[in-house]
């Protein structure tokens, strides 16, 4: 579990390049995306499931609490990171109360996945799905609409198109399913939510995409994990049609991969420092997570990157250059690359990432504000963002004064874990970078700053 964090944390720069390989290699806690998917699939499955390497963080705790409030039997061993779930075979436990409140924090995955799953609850059961104020600003209409087309009964309790919502249970196999033609959506989580109930719809579910799919690797992750739980799914080669057959899931035993998104920060730190080297254990090119490809972007910038069978190694060469890249498939990696870009020669442009505006905060605006505090120039044009690093990559206040311990740059984090984690990269390079509200990392990586201190210790031991 995480130690208590102060209101503001000054990051200690590395005194020397670190070597975190071999027995000092970094092991990142379990993937949020896989944990929340696996928990839902296990709950819907026939039989029991054991999940190992589970992430315990705000996002997954909200999901676990949600399942418990719905009456699922969930056994949790936090020390061993194991969760056992007794599946309901598509028929959620009956509740005596009419409205079960599912407070899902700011967990996009839990909120969207539970919205779809609740339609399978028994008749007479309904759930109010709600969260922290920011969750109530994150749209859900593009999920509610197709669910209604399938026959779901969902009401908006506040503003139309946003949580809180009330979802009425209809019971397993009541919604017929069939074909859904999907226009492009602002989040792939709506598609993952729909797909995951597909095996319990009378006719299964066929999604026909009329246009590009945002954050596509997350949809592929959903399909792959569903297959691992026994679902029968066909896809066209170009992923323009996904067809889920009726038939349900089977409980099983599953190892959750480490969180590839959260591995990006240590990789970014290594890439930004000449001769620093990090080995991330148990991630590889075969990962279910699209973000495992992030190291390839660092390689394009000039870092030395090796993908091994069960690890990814990144070494800083001291020769980073800006890149122009489309990050639509890996939106959670934008903040990491944007901070690394401060230490590259020339500008970096990241394209097609408009949906950053509806995440934990408006990440486009947050990046512009905070990178500017470190002396960068940031331009946002449509859905693209360009970072022009400060002269000679020397971080400084916007008024040109040096950033020092007594005159620090205080980075606001907007209750967004990825702001805190990515701007810490800058703090490992420059004295005087302070992270406001560092505890926001609890959303997906409660031990983040502990791991960062371990890297610092690795540097001192060189
Ligand atoms: O399905 C998932 O697990 C996720 C999908 C992505 O969201 P969008 O599809 O909204 O981009 C990503 O940003 C989020 O952290 C996790
Ligand atoms: C966008 C994110 O989370 P969520 O699942 O809440 O959308 C994220 O973790 O970066």
TrEMBL record:
Cellular component, GO, one term: cytoplasm
Domain Enolpyruvate transferase: 25-452
Alphabetical GO biological process terms: amino acid biosynthetic process; aromatic amino acid family biosynthetic process; chorismate biosynthetic process
GO molecular function, one term: 3-phosphoshikimate 1-carboxyvinyltransferase activity
EC supergroup of this enzyme: transferase
Biochemical pathway: Metabolic intermediate biosynthesis; chorismate biosynthesis; chorismate from D-erythrose 4-phosphate and phosphoenolpyruvate: step 6/7
One Pfam family recorded for the sequence: EPSP_synthase
Keywords: Amino-acid biosynthesis, Aromatic amino acid biosynthesis, Cytoplasm, Transferase
Binding residues for phosphoenolpyruvate: 32, 108, 138, 189, 363, 418, 443
Catalytic activity: 3-phosphoshikimate + phosphoenolpyruvate = 5-O-(1-carboxyvinyl)-3-phosphoshikimate + phosphate
Record's keyword annotation contains Cytoplasm: yes
Subcellular location: Cytoplasm
Positions of 3-phosphoshikimate binding: 32-33, 37, 187-189, 215, 332, 355, 359
InterPro entries linked: Enolpyruvate_Tfrase_dom, Enolpyruvate_Tfrase_sf, EPSP_synthase, EPSP_synthase_CS, RNA3'P_cycl/enolpyr_Trfase_a/b
Entry annotation: catalytic residues: 332 (proton acceptor)
E.C. no: 2.5.1.19
Record text on subunit structure and interactions: Monomer.
PANTHER family: AROM/DEHYDROQUINATE SYNTHASE, PENTAFUNCTIONAL AROM POLYPEPTIDE
Similarity section: Belongs to the EPSP synthase family.
Functional note: Catalyzes the transfer of the enolpyruvyl moiety of phosphoenolpyruvate (PEP) to the 5-hydroxyl of shikimate-3-phosphate (S3P) to produce enolpyruvyl shikimate-3-phosphate and inorganic phosphate.
Identification of the protein by name: 3-phosphoshikimate 1-carboxyvinyltransferase
């Amino acid at each position: 579990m995480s130690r208590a964090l102060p209101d503001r944390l000054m990051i200690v720069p590395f005194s020397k390049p670190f070597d975190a390989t071999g027995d000092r290699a970094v092991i990142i806690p379990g993937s949020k995306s896989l944990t929340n998917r696996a928990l839902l699939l296990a709950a819907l499955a026939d039989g029991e499931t054991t999940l190992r390497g589970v992430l315990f963080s705000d996002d997954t705790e909200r999901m676990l609490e949600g399942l418990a409030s719905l009456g699922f039997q969930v056994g949790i061993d936090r020390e061993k990171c194991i969760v056992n779930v007794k599946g309901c075979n598509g028929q959620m436990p009956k509740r005596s109360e009419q409205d079960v409140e599912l407070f899902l924090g700011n967990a996009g995955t839990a909120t969207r996945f539970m919205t779809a799953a609740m339609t399978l609850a028994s008749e007479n059961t309904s759930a109010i799905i709600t969260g922290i104020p920011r969750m109530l600003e994150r749209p859900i209409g593009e999920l509610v609409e197709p669910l209604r087309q399938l026959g779901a009964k969902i009401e908006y309790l506040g503003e139309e198109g946003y949580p809180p919502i009330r979802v009425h249970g209809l019971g397993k196999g009541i919604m017929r399913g069939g074909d859904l033609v999907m226009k492009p959506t602002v989040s792939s989580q709506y598609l993952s939510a729909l797909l995951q109930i597909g095996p319990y719809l009378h006719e299964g579910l066929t999604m026909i995409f009329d246009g590009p799919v945002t954050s596509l690797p997350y949809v592929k992750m959903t399909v792959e994990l569903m297959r691992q739980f026994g679902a029968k799914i066909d896809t066209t080669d170009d992923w323009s049609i996904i067809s889920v057959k009726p038939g349900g899931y089977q409980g099983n035993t599953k190892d959750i991969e480490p969180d590839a998104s959260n591995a990006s920060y240590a990789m970014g730190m290594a890439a930004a420092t000449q001769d620093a080297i990090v080995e991330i254990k148990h991630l590889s090119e075969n990962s279910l997570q699209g973000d495992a490809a992030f190291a390839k972007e660092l390689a394009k910038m000039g870092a030395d990157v090796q993908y091994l069978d069960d690890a990814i190694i990144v070494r800083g060469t001291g020769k980073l250059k800006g890149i122009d890249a489309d990050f639509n498939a890996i939106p959670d990696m934008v903040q990491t690359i944007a901070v690394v870009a401060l230490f590259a020669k020339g500008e970096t442009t990241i394209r097609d990432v408009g949906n950053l505006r509806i995440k934990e905060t408006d990440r486009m605006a947050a990046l512009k504000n905070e990178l500017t505090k470190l002396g960068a120039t940031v331009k946002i044009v449509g859905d693209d963002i360009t970072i022009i690093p400060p002269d000679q990559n020397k971080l400084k206040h916007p008024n040109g004064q040096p950033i020092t311990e007594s005159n620090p740059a205080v980075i606001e984090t907007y209750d967004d874990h990825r702001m805190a984690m990515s701007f810490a990269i800058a703090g490992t390079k420059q004295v005087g970078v302070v992270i406001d509200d560092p505890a926001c990392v609890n959303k997906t990586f409660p031990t983040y700053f502990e791991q960062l201190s371990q890297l610092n210790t690795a540097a001192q031991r060189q």
